[in-house]
Design brief:
By secondary structure, this protein is α+β, with helices and mostly antiparallel strands. Helix 2 packs antiparallel against helix 3.
């Protein structure tokens, strides 16, 4: 029995350390956040993302700068759509046609934009829907919030990886469909 108690304590410590303590219940996510949104940032936000990628790429050494820039441009791009919906008694987040992630504060299998496999966690906290993705060593963090009129979803995104010299940070806008 002693080892069972130690296992429980270890599992709880790991859960807390990973931030996977179940947080948001389906009731916590406000109704006005539910819906499907399409990318509406246009060329100005695409150009801002390009400038941010170039800013980070320019910090690499001369020999790998071009390769890093090309790879980041091919892998970091706006999702076409975002859906926040009630399903099966809970709320789920779906980016494009990827696997839906329950917004319950727990880690779940996730599919990346480039079909990589990792884990994702979604929760509603401090007036924002927050989503984190972990793939190998790479991480991305999304914070979703509605504008005051309730038709535009703003998304602040951070991407980190040990091989990047700096965090990639950008903001995108999505209009309710």
């Amino acid at each position: 029995m002693r080892s069972s108690g130690l296992f429980t304590i270890a599992a709880l410590a790991l859960t807390v350390a990973l931030g996977a303590v179940p947080g948001a219940r389906a009731d916590d996510v406000p109704e006005e956040l539910l819906g499907t949104y399409r990318f509406s940032g246009g060329n100005s936000q695409r150009q801002a993302l390009t400038r941010e990628i170039d800013r980070v790429a320019d910090q690499f050494g001369f020999l790998i700068r071009g390769i890093a820039r090309g790879r980041m441009h091919s892998e970091i791009r706006p999702e076409g759509s975002i859906t926040v919906e009630r399903r099966g008694g809970g709320v789920q987040l779906r980016l494009d046609d990827r696997r839906a992630i329950p917004c319950d504060g727990a880690w779940h299998p996730a599919q990346g934009a480039n079909d990589e496999v990792g884990t994702g966690m979604c929760r509603y906290e401090d007036g924002q829907l927050r989503y984190a993705e972990h793939y190998d060593e790479g991480r991305s963090y999304h914070a979703f919030s509605l504008t005051s009129e309730g038709q535009v979803l703003r998304v602040n995104i951070r991407i980190t990886h040990p091989s990047l010299p700096d965090t990639v940070r950008y903001r995108l806008s999505y209009r309710r469909r």
